[in-house]
Amino acid sequence: MAEPDYIESDNAELIKPHKLVNPVKGSRNHQDLHRELLMNQKRGLSPQNKPELQKVMEKRKRDQIIKQQKEETEQKKSDFELELEKRHQKLEEMEMEKHKTEEEQENKPEFLKVKGNLRKMNQEISNANSS
To answer: Residue 1 domain-assigned?
Structure first.
């Protein structure tokens, strides 16, 4: 970057520019606060006196970011993972149906169970005789 030509010349008539003072940094309160923050940072302390509203807002923001990351990972699932999930759901449905039929069998009266067993035995005997 080229420097302006008025810096090199020693013309006394020109007013030389100087850096403006930042009024915020120049204030005593700001300097004290900055000094305290630097000391706390060197000690490894963090300011814990945040207002409750700020804590809640930060927690919401973190939760929202985590939720977005989960959604992104779900969207990035491969075809293989989707197929595995479908098969897992089918297996769960089959298990549920199996449990339902078992519960129905348990709820049947005893004479119906015996009748079903007799039918199975008759079919097995007839199959064995016909073979």
So the answer is: no
Query: Whole-angstrom Cα distance, residue 53 to residue 117?
Result: 69
Tokens of 64: 């929202």
Which amino acid, 107? N
Q: For residue range 30-46, what is the model confidence (pLDDT) as tens digits?
A: 889 889 888 888 887 76
CA angle 102, 107, 109 (to 5 degrees): 120
What is the value of pTM for the model shown? Answer: 0.31
**Euclidean distance between the first and final Cα of the chain, in Å?**
103
Instruction: Please check whether residue 117 lies inside any domain of the structure.
Output: yes
> How many C-beta neighbours within 10 Å does residue 26 have?
9
CB 69 within 8 A of CB 62: no
- DSSP state at residue 10: -
Which structural domain range is residue 105 located in? 79-122
Phi/psi of residue 75, nearest 5 degrees: -70, -25
Q: Is residue 27 within 8 Å of 33, Cβ to Cβ? A: no
Q: List C-alpha distances in Å: 111 to 63, 99, 108, 118, 130.
A: 58, 21, 8, 10, 28
